[in-house]
């Protein structure tokens, strides 16, 4: 319940222009948007469980949450559509999130990078499991392992392809 309250408080802070951008995405993809919202709530909940001290900061838990969020969006959307359509929507949704709730440039780079790691991780696992049988547990353990080897992002030029990143 607390996670839903956080999300609704964030939505209340949006300007009219930003609300219109969000509505365009929701109207174009209503089912994906419902599943994306559910993935958002689940990722907050799981990040709170596994990384209670750092999921709401720019630490390792935040890196885990962003990657998991993308995996969950893809998992849920792949159950009703093709992996490519799910991937396209996931990128639109998570990129829009960064636009609607802007951060400092290094934080934005970190979030977008970790989103990409999550998308890549899902797509890497996809050939080995029928998309209808994916479960959340498939991602959590692997992403926790990736979190253990996460790198510290210090500048906009840093490139840690495939690794989760966080700020100190």
Question: Secondary structure elements and their pairing?
Answer:
Elements: H1 2-12, H2 16-28, H3 30-50, H4 60-78, H5 83-100, H6 105-125, H7 137-148, E1 151-152, E2 165-166
Parallel strand pairs: 1-2
Helix pairs in contact: 2-3, 2-5, 3-4, 4-5, 4-6, 4-7, 5-6
Domain DUF6973: 24-150
InterPro entries: DUF6973 (IPR054246)
Transmembrane segments: 21-41
Question: How many whole angstroms does the radius of gyration measure?
Answer: 15 Å
Outline the low-pLDDT stretches. none
Question: What is the mean pLDDT?
Answer: 93
Largest sheet: 2 strands, parallel
Main-sheet strand order equals 1-2
User: What does the overall shape look like?
Assistant: globular
Distance between the termini: 29 Å
The tally of structural domains comes to 1
Structural class: mainly alpha
Percent range for helical residues?
55-70%
Strand content: under 5%
The number of distinct β-strands equals 2
Counting DSSP H or I runs of 4 or more residues, the number of helices is 7
| Sequence of secondary-structure elements | HHHHHHHEE
């Amino acid at each position: 319940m607390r996670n839903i309250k956080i999300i609704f408080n964030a939505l209340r802070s949006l300007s009219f222009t930003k609300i219109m951008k969000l509505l365009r995405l929701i109207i174009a993809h209503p089912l994906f948007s419902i599943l994306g919202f559910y993935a958002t709530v689940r990722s907050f909940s799981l990040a709170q469980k596994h990384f209670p001290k750092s999921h709401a900061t720019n630490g390792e838990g935040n890196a885990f949450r962003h990657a998991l969020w993308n995996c969950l969006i893809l998992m849920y959307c792949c159950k009703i559509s093709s992996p490519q359509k799910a991937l396209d929507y996931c990128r639109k949704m998570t990129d829009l999130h960064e636009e609607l709730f802007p951060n400092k440039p290094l934080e934005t780079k970190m979030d977008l990078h970790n989103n990409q790691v999550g998308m890549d991780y899902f797509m890497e696992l996809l050939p080995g499991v029928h998309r209808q049988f994916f479960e959340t547990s498939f991602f959590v353990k692997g992403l926790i392992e990736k979190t253990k080897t996460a790198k510290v992002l210090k500048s906009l030029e840093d490139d840690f392809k495939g690794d989760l990143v966080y700020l100190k």
